[in-house]
Amino acid sequence: EAERMSKLISQLLMISRMEQNILKTKFERFDFGELLQFVCEEQQEIHTEPITLKTDIADKVFVRGDRELLIRLAVNLISNAYTYGKSRIFVSLKQEKEQAVLTVSDDGIGISEENLPKIWERFYQVNPSRTHEQGNVGLGLSMVRWIAAFHGGEIRVKSRLGEGTEFRFLISMQ
Question: Which terminus of the chain has fewer Cβ atoms in its 10 Å neighbourhood, N or C?
Answer without folding.
Answer: N
